[in-house]
Amino acid sequence: MRKRVMAMAVLLLCMIGILAGAGNGVVYADTKPEEKVFSGDVKLLKQENSNYVMQVTVGNTGEDFSGTVQVVFANTERDNCAYNTELSLPSQGEKQFTLTIPQKAADAVRGLCAVNFLDDRGKLVETISLKNVFGDTVSGIPVGVLSEKYTDLTFMDLGGQDFYVNNMAYPIDLIELDEDNLSGYLDGLYFMIIDAYDTSALSEETIQAIQDWVKDGGWLLIGTGAYAEQTLSGFDEDFLNVSLTGICEPGEESSVSINRKNYGNYWNYQDSGIDFTNMTIAEFSMTNYTGYESSENPALCVTLEDGAVSVFNFSLTDPELVKASTYTCQYMYEETMYNSMSYQNNFGGSNMEYVGQRALALIDSNNTDVDFKFLKILMVVYVVLVGPILYLILRKCKKSEWYWIGAPVLGILFIAGVFVFGQNMKVNETKVYSVTASKEGSSQANTYYLAYHSGVGEWKMRLNEQYQVAGPGWCDYYGGNGNNAGDYHYAVTKDNEGLSIGMKPQENFESGFLYAQGTCESKGTITGSDIKGSGLTGTISGSVTNDSVRDMKYMAVWFDSYLMVFSDVKAGETLNLSEAKADSRCVYQGEVSMYDSLLYDMVSMYSNPANLSYEQDDMAALLIGIGIADDEKPEGTGYATVVGLYDNYDKTVADKCNETSYGCLYSYEEMEVENNAAD
Question: Please, what is the Cα angle at 249 between 245 and 252, to 5 degrees?
Fold first, then answer.
């Protein structure tokens, strides 16, 4: 009898486990998929409205297939995006279809992708890896190489791995230069390498062009070593005032080897196994010159107006450098780039789009509640089903007095089972924060989303019908250790009901930034009158009119490096900036020459000032609009950027979900610049 009771108890516990795990979905048997032979190809069909239209061709030589063709574009380990298309593919059949991806996502992908075939249960049947699906459209970082030993310098392409500029990944594209083609390539280069080349043989015009290119923001790497004299000989003394004081042959002690031995410098070279005593080292001195000896690279580093030059003590064609790791080579590029004013102005300050991403991350984003609705159902099941079954079992065994002991014990086990198996029940709804920005007079809407989901179930949200393009909004700006085209984080699905976007779950799930582009109706215009700005005094005057159909919760007026934010600008209201400031309607004003400082000041990332006169969520949304407007800003200083923020904006998600929506309308108003510091 005791064995029968134990067996029944085990059976009851199994039932509890099945009930507790019911929310995980149907569990399929591990059946072996049918043998199928698929083919797949992805090519760029055309570029359209800053997007890439890709043509996908799939074939099947096996049994009839019905399921999903998934095209995964690889970026970093975290940011891959899958585009899903449901279709039927008969035996011996072939089909073509197109999909459109945002240009920003394509620029980050660099052409690595996979075509996955999923059956009707979502199980992977076959995968096909592809490379360079964009052809040469998505270019890398162009690096010109001027050398008689070009083939010895091809390792400077980082072995095909990506190079990071402001944490965005790009491949290195090496271009072999000579005097005939140099002028044609020069303006498009980011870096130039000159090594083992007699620069005195170049014409005066070519030398001057190189020097002007550096001063305008170019990044020049010069290798020397045994070729130091001839490689440096062509440059003007007032451009590169570096004196060659000697050559140390292999086996001789040099300043480089002494620095390595006494001060531990150049650690990344040591990690690569490079021995400086085996190299020919050039010794230099600098007179009346602004520069420094690097502790990261054996080089003299100099800033020249907007550009920079690194003069290495060795030749980059030295045989010892075959040991150089990708990391070592990247440091050669990075230090040169970091020393230039062009990098500090255009990249180091963190562009507004990146600031917008970080601002959006500050919007309230916690939705980690357990789905109590499901728990209530389980409790009803326990009271109505499990309790009576337990009582009947004990009564039949003539042990009904045990019920008052067994019921609480099973109740505890039941709750524990719910806790263990019910982790997937977290989040009873998806919280979505959307910021939609559109330029006055334009019918295009750009919407950025921040969405959270703390469960482990894959989710997606259906977008309104006006959206045609979707994908990752921003990269997370974390480098991955290689790309994995077989997996994905973001997902986009287009079917007969329209477009949906979502994310694949991860442990310790983090935020996802999603993007969609569609059409919109004009909300009106923003017009300016007699706007004047002074870069010296940091002031903006004049008036701006909200000629839109709605009140603006906040309006930002941005000139040069100065930003003012005003509150509560009614529809049809003309805002006199000076008077509004005097009336305390200016809730924020300050310098924005460094965008990070704008983020810290306006949204207060690392502090919580008590005297803020605005909601930080609103300012975060406004920064998104400012970032998008800045991306399209006209050249020149004769414009003020005006961005208005609407709250409770038009919903963008067609599904029933908790959406907090913001809208931004922006324009560029002609203005008069007075006493600008740039003058």
Answer: 95
Axis crossing angle, helix 352-360 with helix 616-631, rounded to the nearest 10: 150
pLDDT of residue 210: 95
Does domain 141-348 sit in CATH 3.40.50?
A: yes
Q: What is the 3-state secondary structure (H, E, C) of 189-225?
A: CCEEEECCCCHHHCCHHHHHHHHHHHHCCCEEEECCH
pLDDT at 111: 59
Model confidence pLDDT, tens digit, residues 114-143: 899 999 888 899 999 887 787 655 567 889
| HEC assignment per residue over 120-153 | CCCCEEEEEEECCCCCCCCCCEEEEEECCCHHHH
| Of 467, 466, 517, 510, residue with least CA distance to 490 | 510
Between the alpha carbon of residue 518 and those of residues 437, 512, 622, 642, the distances in Å are: 11, 20, 20, 22
Average pLDDT over residues 589-613: 58
Using CA atoms of 127, 128, 129, 130 in order, give the dihedral in degrees to the nearest 10.
-140
pLDDT of residue 194: 97
Residue extents of the structural domains in the chain: 1-26+370-425, 49-134+456-508, 141-348
Nearest in space to 579 (alpha carbons), one of 569, 594, 590, 593: 569
DSSP one-letter string for 288-328: S--EEE-SSSSEEEEEETTEEEEEESS-TT-GGGGG--HHH
**Topology (CATH level 3) of domain 49-134+456-508:** Immunoglobulin-like (2.60.40)
C-alpha closest to that of 622 among 612, 610, 634, 614: 614
In the numeric block, the tokens 């980690």 are attached to 368
